[in-house]
Design a protein that fits this description.
alpha+beta, Mannose-Binding Protein A, Chain A, eight-stranded mixed beta sheet, five-stranded mixed beta sheet, 3 helices, about 10% helix, C-type lectin domain-containing protein
């Protein structure tokens, strides 16, 4: 929900979401009735007073004062905001097919392996505790590579996806390997995609010859590092997290390979 052109903190972009409070400000609810299992409030929010609003909005990209993704309710419900976000469950098919032999279906655009997350045409999964080379080797087991990143939105999505629980103090800067590696003094993504417009943190990349692998600063936001790249660790250093990335079609190939390794029982109709 990036807000084009809103790069000045003088006009922070905002968008309505489905969270609201009762009139007495004692409880909150999602408009679709789902339980509240996640809240991410901006400091000094929510405002539990009659002069505040009962409807909740979210600060949207670009980053402005580290507010991105944070909730607030300092605007009344009848005011117009720049954006709002709708959410709907996909329709479920009622047609069931009885077959006597296995049927191979083409992958859907958002089909990922179980436990992987789909975003913008790709599948992602976060793993833990490996050096860069071990991480890339493990990603390849899933027909994947360490993640390549090609937009500010993707940097922030992955930084949040791989959030390091408990690391809410800036004294502990959570980090995760991504697929960026330096070869012949050129930075390249492990999956072969173009390594342009890299989102380096201030003072990075370092020029030391041994620091040839890049990691990303993960959530939570700490000194503006979230989503920024750095190469201050050696490639053989074990980091807390690493992120693998693949496509639905590659995931389907892996599923087919695994299904061919076992004898599938026939379904009796």
């Amino acid at each position: 929900m990036n807000h084009p052109g809103a790069d000045a903190c003088s006009a922070p972009p905002q968008g309505w979401i489905g969270l609201y409070t009762d009139d007495d400000f004692k409880s909150m609810k999602w408009s679709d009735g789902t339980p509240i299992d996640y809240q991410y409030w901006h400091p000094n929010q929510p405002i539990l007073a009659a002069y505040a609003g009962n409807c909740i909005y979210m600060h949207i990209a670009p980053i402005c004062g580290n507010k991105i993704g944070m909730f607030a309710n300092s605007i009344r419900c009848n005011e117009k905001l720049a954006k709002f976000v709708c959410k709907k469950k996909p329709l479920e098919s009622k047609n069931k097919i009885a077959v006597s032999d296995p049927v191979v279906l083409s992958p859907k655009l958002n089909d990922c392996l179980h436990g992987w997350s789909f975003w913008n045409g790709s599948c992602y999964k976060v793993f833990e505790n490996a050096n860069w080379f071990e991480a890339e080797k493990q990603c390849k087991m899933y027909h994947a590579h360490l993640a390549s990143i090609h937009s500010v939105q993707e940097y922030l999505y992955l930084a949040d996806l791989a959030e390091h629980p408990g690391a809410h103090a800036c004294a502990v800067a959570p980090q995760g390997w991504v697929g960026l590696i330096r070869e012949n003094n050129q930075w390249k993504w492990a999956d072969g995609t173009s390594a342009a417009n890299l989102n380096w943190f201030t003072g990075q990349p370092q020029k030391e010859a041994a620091n040839n692998c890049a990691y990303m600063h993960l959530a939570p936001i700490c000194n503006g590092k979230m989503g920024k790249l750095a190469n201050a660790a050696l490639c053989d250093q074990v980091l807390q997290k690493f992120i693998c990335k693949t496509t639905p079609s590659k995931s389907a190939e892996l599923i087919m390979e695994q299904s061919q390794e076992i004898e599938l029982p026939k379904i009796i109709t």
